[in-house]
Write a structure and sequence with these properties.
The protein is built from nine helices and eleven strands. By secondary structure, it is α/β, with parallel strands linked by helices. Mean pLDDT is about 90; it is low at about 1-5.
């Protein structure tokens, strides 16, 4: 595992998932007035793991983070990025063909958090993001993922195109979305070892990555808009993979 960024996480569910996952938590602040009955599991887990819990005025919690904290904030050990081998290891452990997401310069932390949440639900084995011009693992992403950030490994790479080449060398097929001249996503062969590229919010998938795709799919639309939000498109594609693989 490599690279880390220091973060606070806020909100009951993100903090609870961090505790459940065994992530190192340095300190937990709970605002006075928060009902203990609503956070009893959180308090029990914190006690089991030897986490220092401090009850403080709500103003103190407000000062710790700008996020919607629900009166709960934790200082956590840095987020750890995975290596590509870790993603293959997750697939192997589950005895499943690899299923990865590649996010091409996604900049909105809420989109990344939402994609992580769906990736966890749909059984994706991990996410690959670029180091430059893309959002990383932040407190906002953690909040938007509602705890999925603790369970979905994320690899951050210097060059997405080179990573795609490496994936292909390791037997993974590459799929992307393209509105022109592509196949309906419902005809996807999702039983293959697969990595799906999701384009950025504004520009979509880069030309270089598009050229490296083995398959190009489109999402049929009959309304007036010409594209979908990145996290919505990703969710549809992930659940198509899930649906196909459940048939096996």
């Amino acid at each position: 595992m490599t690279e880390q960024t220091n973060e606070m996480i806020a909100g009951k569910n993100p903090v609870l998932e961090a505790l459940r996952s065994g992530r190192e938590i340095n300190k937990l602040w709970i605002a006075e007035g928060v009902k203990k009955t609503g956070v009893q599991e959180l308090l029990d887990l914190a006690r089991e793991r030897g986490v220092l819990v401090q009850f403080v005025p709500k103003k103190k919690v407000d000062q710790l983070t700008d996020a919607n904290h629900q009166g709960i904030v934790a200082a956590v050990a840095a987020y750890t990025y995975a290596e590509l081998d870790d993603l293959f290891a997750v697939a192997a452990q589950k005895q499943e063909d690899p299923f990865f997401l590649i996010l091409d310069e996604l900049e909105d932390p809420h989109n990344l958090g939402s994609i992580m949440r769906t990736a966890d639900a749909a059984g994706a084995h991990g996410i690959i993001i670029p180091k430059r011009r893309a959002v990383g693992l932040t407190a906002v992403v953690a909040k938007a993922s509602t705890g999925a950030i603790e369970h979905v490994p994320v690899v951050r790479v210097t060059n997405l195109a080179q990573t795609v080449d490496e994936l292909k060398d390791r037997g993974v097929w590459i799929a992307g979305t393209d509105a022109k001249g592509s196949v309906d996503y419902r005809k996807m062969d999702a039983t293959l070892p697969l990595a799906i590229i999701i384009g950025s919010e504004g520009k979509g998938m880069s030309r270089l990555l598009k050229e490296k795709c083995d398959f190009l799919y489109h999402l049929p639309m009959v309304g007036h808009v010409t594209s979908l939000n990145a996290s919505v498109a990703a969710a549809l594609l992930m659940y198509e993979v899930y649906r196909n693989r459940q048939r096996l």
